[in-house]
């Protein structure tokens, strides 16, 4: 069960250094916060649209701050209440903002406010979410962080993320760009607009026939993606934040392997008896990320293969009114 979000009055700066996670009550943000707690870090998360604390984040261990990331003064004020030593900037404007100019304005304001605040606070590490979509058009796979990238992007999200990577380099040492792969799991969007697997699993748990009519993305047996469970994603980000030294400013965050949709559907059918999902033949092989840098600098190893991820996600959906 989720517990209601509680606003907190201004307080003196925390004695312990804290890592700030913007967008910290979203799927990736909340699992990053959980992983940071598991590493012994103190955490403050920001919330804007989301108003409930997930049950896997203990209320007594997490400070929640209401924040509109486009408000520069409110952003800076966080540093008056907490001794912030690091920032993970995951907050994002709604992906479906219809006006791309408004989307880019909101995203740009939030990132620049985060960078300015981090500089004012003197944080040691500033990590910002980028995307696997930065590699769209790169022919060779697995995709490596030093791969030359195309000069065009097909959607407003990779347009901004690639620009943000350049801006973030201006923050100097300690800035880290996170090229995050195809993520799914608890608190994720069941009717995901970019890939069909969350929709298939959610429909199976609900006992429904999955609706994959356009504009929803298609699903075929041989479609494949670099699928990463959100708990692994959060742990990878936390390890990067906790690492004493990092050798690079860009890291791929994912499982580092290509997963066929047919493999996921088979796992769903085993986890949800009676689901009887099937996919039409054909599909695109997709591409996947090389996570060698991440592994070398943090020791990260994914804990969730397809079978374990599906079982865990199914159990979570059943416990949370899927």
From TrEMBL:
Q: Where are the transmembrane segments?
A: none
Taxonomy, superkingdom = Bacteria
Q: List residues of the NAD-dependent epimerase/dehydratase domain.
A: 19-253
A Pfam match is Epimerase
Q: What is this protein called?
A: UDP-glucose 4-epimerase
Q: Which organism is it from?
A: Pseudonocardia oroxyli
């Amino acid at each position: 069960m989720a517990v209601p979000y509680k606003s907190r009055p201004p307080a003196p700066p925390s004695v312990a250094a804290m890592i700030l996670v913007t967008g910290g009550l979203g799927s990736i943000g909340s699992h990053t916060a959980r992983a940071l707690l598991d590493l012994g870090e103190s955490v403050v998360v920001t919330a804007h649209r989301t108003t409930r604390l997930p049950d896997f984040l203990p209320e007594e261990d997490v400070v929640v701050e209401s924040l509109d990331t486009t408000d520069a003064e409110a952003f800076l004020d966080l540093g008056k209440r907490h001794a912030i030593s690091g920032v993970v900037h995951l907050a994002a404007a709604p992906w479906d903002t219809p006006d791309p100019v408004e989307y880019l304005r909101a995203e740009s304001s939030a990132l620049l406010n985060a960078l300015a605040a981090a500089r004012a606070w003197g944080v040691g590490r500033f990590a910002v979410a980028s995307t696997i979509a930065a590699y769209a058009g790169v022919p060779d796979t697995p995709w490596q962080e030093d791969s030359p990238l195309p000069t065009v992007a097909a959607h407003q999200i990779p347009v901004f993320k690639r620009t943000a990577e350049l801006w973030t380099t201006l923050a100097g040492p300690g800035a880290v760009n996170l090229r995050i792969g195809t993520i799914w799991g608890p608190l994720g969007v069941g009717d995901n607009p970019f890939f069909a697997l969350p929709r298939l699993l959610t429909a199976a748990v609900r006992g429904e026939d999955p609706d994959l009519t356009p504009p929803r993305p298609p699903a075929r047996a041989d479609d494949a993606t670099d699928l990463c469970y959100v708990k692994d994603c959060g742990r990878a980000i936390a390890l990067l934040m906790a690492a004493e030294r990092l050798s690079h400013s860009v890291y791929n965050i994912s499982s580092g392997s290509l997963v066929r949709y047919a493999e996921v559907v088979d796992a769903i059918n085993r986890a949800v008896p009676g689901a009887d999902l099937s996919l039409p033949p054909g599909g695109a092989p997709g591409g996947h990320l090389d996570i060698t840098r991440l592994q070398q600098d943090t020791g990260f190893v994914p804990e969730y293969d397809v079978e374990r991820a599906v079982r865990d996600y199914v159990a979570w959906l059943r416990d949370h009114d899927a």
